[in-house]
Write a structure and sequence with these properties.
Aminopeptidase; alpha+beta; 11 helices; elongated; six-stranded antiparallel beta sheet; 37% helix; 391 residues; 18 strands; 3 domains
């Protein structure tokens, strides 16, 4: 008797396939069904396999031929997070429902970003040139490296980056995946890779330019992708597993995963094999629950004890009305030499609500390691501490 393990969530969202043993999928939100075009009658007519199928989302339940197969179920520890979009005409309508009085705060974040920079949005879905794809994927990789270095953490996406880079180009052009990008002028500041499964978007890998961190780019990304999903007749926005605060805040459906052990009714050896698998899976989930709780406590303690240090220590003086010596030289904070000023300038833009085109940075000649950020009507003095290394 053979045994086959299937990651149901992965098959659906990353491969775009329904496992061949299931004739159809039933949707939780509606009475609709999705017929499996790859359903294999031979698997039913000549059952000789035990299937161990895990990460089955409760709102995409597969149907089984119960005349042929028996089923054992185990609830899994992880939860999943999704946004159901039925009944919402726009992202604004959804955030008004979800965040109520705080919805204005979400819209304010988007407007603040757009008022400070020349912002545009683009979703590559069904068509992207190889050269542009390579540039954006390289940019996303750099964003992930910087972001996880800042967090002092390891990105699982970076570990398999070559695999992802080789995979997504054809998927985007087949409309099985998409690449969502937020541009500041021509410069990508948010990049998100998404999978698509029959009108459902799964946000798989995302990152952003941490210099724009003040602008809550994660919220901007979700807001704009929700608008795209609704405009393109998508039923849901899927965030997958992993208990994170932003997922709990945004999602209107927090669901359970189920592990199913499927085996032929008429086979004693299959029933024994399935029972053994059931015991293994149940024990694994029990152990994992205990281990995960301890791991979370360890992570929280480690985070608390980790001292986060800035590469450059500086003092940002209060923002005041513009008054300065016009003889001070201008420096280019976008250049490699002065890139250490870039995030500080963007923080100034956020606080003062200035547009980037109206802002310049001057070097104060008579004071060491001192700069002025000058806007249309406001300015701020930045003083780096003595001993800070400025290259």
């Amino acid at each position: 008797m053979k045994k086959v393990q299937i990651d149901y969530f992965f098959e659906l969202f990353e491969k775009g396939l329904i496992p061949k043993v299931f004739p159809r999928i039933n949707y939780l939100e509606s009475e609709e069904q999705l017929i499996n075009p790859d359903y294999d009658d031979e698997l039913v007519n000549n059952p000789d396999t035990v299937y161990s199928v895990f990460f089955i989302a409760d709102y995409l339940k597969p149907e089984l031929n119960k005349e042929v197969f028996n089923l054992k179920k185990v609830d899994q520890f992880f939860k999943g997070y999704a946004i159901f979009l039925d009944g919402f005409a726009s992202a604004d309508a959804y955030i008004k429902y979800r965040f109520r009085s705080n919805a204005k705060g979400i819209r304010r974040r988007v407007k603040r970003l757009e008022s400070c920079f020349q912002i545009s949005y683009k979703t590559y879905y069904g068509s992207i040139e190889k050269e542009e794809y390579d540039v954006l994927m390289d940019c996303l990789e750099k964003m992930l490296i910087r972001r996880f270095k800042q967090r002092n953490d390891v990105s699982q996406s970076l570990i398999r980056w070559d695999h992802y880079k080789s995979m997504y180009f054809s998927l985007i052009n087949q409309k099985k995946a998409s690449l969502f990008v937020v541009y500041d002028h021509d410069n990508p500041i948010v990049i998100s890779l998404n999978h698509h499964f029959f009108g459902r978007l799964f946000s798989a890998i995302s990152s952003y330019d941490i210099d724009y961190g003040k602008f809550s780019l994660g919220s901007v990304e979700i807001y704009k992708k929700l608008d795209w999903c609704i405009a393109n007749n998508h039923k849901s926005y899927e965030m997958g597993m992993g208990d994170l605060t932003y997922k709990r805040e945004w999602c209107n459906h927090i669901y359970n995963f189920e592990h199913q052990i499927i085996y032929p009714k008429k086979s004693i050896s299959a029933a024994i094999s399935a029972f053994v698998e059931y015991l293994k899976v149940s024990f694994k989930e029990f152990v994992f629950k205990i281990a995960y709780v301890r791991y979370k406590k360890y992570k929280a303690k480690r985070k608390k004890n980790t001292v986060v240090t800035q590469e450059l220590e500086y003092k940002a003086l209060p923002i005041i009305e513009v008054q300065y010596d016009e003889q001070y030289p201008t420096v280019d904070y976008n250049s490699a030499e002065y890139s250490f000023l870039r995030k500080i300038v963007f923080d100034f833009l956020y606080t003062s609500i200035e547009h980037v085109s109206n802002v310049s940075v001057l070097k104060v000649l008579e004071e060491e390691n001192t700069y002025l950020i000058i806007g249309k009507s406001k300015m701020q003095k930045i003083v780096f501490e003595t001993g800070s290394h400025i290259s």
